[in-house]
Amino acid sequence: MLIAGFPAGAFQTNCYVVAPAAGEECVIVDPGQDATQGVEELLREHRLKPVAVLLTHGHLDHVWSVAPVCGARDIPAWIHPDDRHLLSDPAAGWSGTSASLFGDLRLSEPDDVRELSDGAVLTLAGLELVVDHTPGHTRGSVSFRLPDDAIMFAGDLLFAGSIGRTDLPGGDYATILRSLAAKCLTLPDDTVVLPGHGPQTTIGRERAANPYLKEAAPHAGPTRGI
Questions:
Q1: Contact indicator for 216, 182 with CB cutoff of 8 Å
Q2: pLDDT tens digit string along 87-115?
Q3: Is residue 226 domain-resident?
Q4: Residue-by-residue DSSP string for 76-115
Q5: Number of domains composing the chain
Q6: What does the record give as cofactor (predicted)?
Q7: Does a structural domain hold residue 23?
Q8: Contact by Cβ (8 Å): 21, 1
Q9: Of the candidates 111, 94, 112, which has an alpha carbon nearest to the alpha carbon of residue 102?
Q10: What's the Cα-to-Cα distance from 49 to each of 32, 69, 107, 186, rounded to whole Å?
Q11: 164 within some domain
Q12: 23, exposed or middle or buried, with CB in 10 Å at 0-12, 13-18, 19+?
């Protein structure tokens, strides 16, 4: 398994390329602000051929470069339908004051946009990625899992020591707690979490020390008895 990434732009959003090995096909996860050059450098370094872009949600800092990246390689972008409108209307994902910071910025959808659904299994680039709908940060937030390798691309659902903000349009604190309970607390402790911002972590580490996962725990529901 090859996973390489870098923090893109002023938001330092983690962009990843994922492939079975160097010299093979790959997928690109969350190409954010000014990510195009960094993506191209990783593709050249590892001799990779991208077949799709996967978006954990529609916030500007995660989708800024999706149209040019897809257009340069003639590949599709995958996003949950609840966040698709943000591809062409990024200000809709921010509060009024925050949206004004982007001025006259205009984004557009890639030519080929495909929609994600909860529980779907994407077979791309020799990988099988499970899609988990994880609303709360946005309505259309998702995470992508490689179950055989115990790896989760969490987007802005879960960070090392924290979680995604819920004060922007489409965010909801109770909803993100339910997502954490259903989609994170049910995973093995050795699951590696690759978040949308900051360093990687594990489910076990967050289960033990992340105050938000502790708060989410009562929402996980009863466990099966012996």
A1: no
A2: 999 888 987 655 455 556 778 899 999 99
A3: no
A4: -EEE-GGGGGGGT-GGGGS-HHHHGGGTT------S-EEE
A5: 1
A6: Zn(2+)
A7: yes
A8: yes
A9: 94
A10: 19, 12, 25, 33
A11: yes
A12: exposed
CA distance 144 to 194: 10
Cα–Cα distance for residue pair 146/6, rounded to 1 Å: 20
Digit-coded pLDDT (tens) for 150-176: 999 999 999 999 999 999 999 999 999
What SS3 class is residue 19? strand
Show the DSSP H helices in the chain as ranges. 36-46, 60-63, 66-73, 96-99, 173-183, 203-209, 211-216
**Greatest extent of the chain over all pairs of C-alpha atoms, in Å:** 59
Query: Over the stretch 39-48, which tens digit does the pLDDT of each residue have?
Result: 999 999 999 9
The answer to the question of residue 224 being in a domain is: no
- Looking up tokens 């991208």 gives 50
Residues of the chain scoring pLDDT < 70: 96-104, 219-226
Q: Which pLDDT score is estimated for 226?
A: 33
- Distance, CA of 166 to CA of 10 (rounded, Å): 20
Both tokens assigned to 224: 């099966």
CATH number (domain holding residue 190): 3.60.15.10
Give me the domain span that covers residue 22: 2-216
Instruction: State the pLDDT at residue 217.
Output: 84
